[in-house]
Hints:
Structural class: mainly beta
Distance between the termini: 27 Å
Radius of gyration: 33 Å
Number of helices: 3
Largest sheet: 7 strands, mixed
Helix content: under 10%
Number of strands: 53
Strand content: 35-45%
Amino acid sequence: NKALEIYNGTESTIDLSNYRIKIIHNGDFEGEYYTFPAGATIAGNDVFIIGNDGAVSDILSVTDDSVAWDSGSVVSFNGDDARLLEKTVDGGTTWDSTDVIGNSIGGDPGAGWDVAGVTNATKDHTLVRKNSVSQGNTDWSASAGTTTENSEWIVYEDGTYNYLGFHNLNSANDILSFVLEAQTGDAIINSDEHKVTIEVGYGTDVTSLEPTITVSLGAQVSPTGAQNFTDSVVYVVTAEDGTAQDWSAFVTVAPVSTEANILTFVLAEQTGDAVINTTDTTVSIEVAEGTDVTALSPTITVSYGAQVTSTVPQDFTNPVIYTVVAEDGITTKEWTATVTIQEISTVSIYDIQYTTDASGDSPYLGQIIRTSGIITGIATDGFFIQDSVGVWNGVYVFNKYDSVSPAPVVGDSIALTAQVDEYYNLTELKNTSYTVEASGVTLPLPAVITATDMTEGIEGVLIKFENYTCVDVDFDGHSNSLYVKEGVTDTLMVHDMMYSDINPVLNNEYTITGIGNYDWNNFKVEPRDSNDFEILIIVNNPPTIENVVISPTAPTPNDTVCVVADFNDDVAVTAKHFYYGLDADSVNIELTLEAVGFSGNTFRAVIPVQNAGVTVYFRIEASDVDSTVTYTGSYNVITGIDDINMNNISIYPNPVNDILHLDNLNNVQNITISNIIGQKVKTIENINSEKIRINTSDLDRGVYIISITDKLRNVHSSKLLKK
């Protein structure tokens, strides 16, 4: 249930094609971008809402753009993910921040940022900008504040949705509910005619009735207190912005009732709502396993004015008869109430997990079950159990809210009762209670498999991968490292759910043990500690020159050009140099590289102003104790020719399964996809469309590089993961 709201504090309609949102995950400044739908605008003093397409109706009913939930989504945030609203005034060549949520350059805050004195307020809360705030603030510390007084934000509980859809003062002036103690049913509220109609029971004195009225957020209602409803009463609802609306309330008195129905039947021990059959006059209800049914005290509500016989504790070993006498004192009905005791199936983990259904859903989805297993690994909000070796024999237990059971310990054999659930296609057990049957039990041996075997059956199972080489230390900025093995087509993904100090090294070879997991649409293995991450071969990798950015991308004769790059090495970069020139064969003018940012690995050089029409070539060198690597690039100095705006290009989905979408391809010449050793596997040339689709279903699973070249020969490259 995620949403992000943008507000236009001006009187004029704003074209959102000049805006974008930078998506920053886990405090990593190098993010992705959300671009607004084509033609999107915000009217003056109005809002634009982006919502997760799987959110509740309270969010989707006011959403302007619903987007899919994935790791790169603008609404995929969980506390430590910043968002920057950026604006361009030159067609996308440069972008300036206008507002921010979260510290975009301060690194990962942990669980979340503090706001208005609330710890981790950006996690599991709703943040609402104060009405007094009418423009953005790029200083997050000042915006977040330290108290309720100096913060620009009000922090509400998670699940507070009623502030979506407006900013500043609310103009709504509706009556939302109207309740009288003597009513026979819910009030009928007609918002078009601004009329409330309600019926009260026979014999009610309508000359002094005091309703309980709820109105729109921030609105006030008058009069208050008891009123004479012999005739209609006019209520004035005044909105937060001062707009008033008259509402007429009519109260009618019901004739003496002949209804003798049971309306609700509640037991403290019930597992679900009672089934009330008014035709057969029966009540059926289930209570939890182990309940003593010989002395149960139901809470029964009946028709208005009616009475029910004995409400003392009853023995429900057999059905119990209740007699309901209507308000008229004549009409009666006999109701038969039957209580059954919940039957919980005892099943193996294999029974819970094994399925041939394409959805991967457990055959016990939604059911309460009893099972047992050995705790094999512990995560922040749960743990894994397994009852035997091999696939289908493990499962994740979500116990974040279990305050009764003992703390989990690896090696404990437990018996538990839980509900089977599918959490974003991961089969898990929730609503748990368990007891420890033995401690220090030997864990099941891990099953030795390959990345090709990473399918539904590995969830929750101890697994082992031998002789895998690291090809990417963090594919997506979410601590997902990638590994390949000679002779195995598929790529292995390793995550840090339980062991955060993995720290893989590119090209090193490992044997990796862990527990199978499904997270963010990918199967992956979760090592538990350093013993699960065994180094077999250490490779002294050459230094790397990465994330090279040229700004501006299409300079004019008036522009200096800033080239920024990240320098990294397994140990240390011992020397770094930057050269440029106007001849590809004579790039020998050296410039100073100066450090930027907070990482200590990012440096920049500034190339002086050059004449229109020339091509500027540059070379970057990085050395360690053993080797030197070189990065070369070039750009053209233009005289007004349209240039590709790489930041506006949309590439999705990533990871991709079959069809890859590329949008906003203005002035793009060609596109190539290469594998990790540089071999081109797909080439699309002479592009003359703003949108293309590439079928990747014939590509093997793994990491690729997609390169986009514009008509001025500038090249933009990014990683692509094929599922």
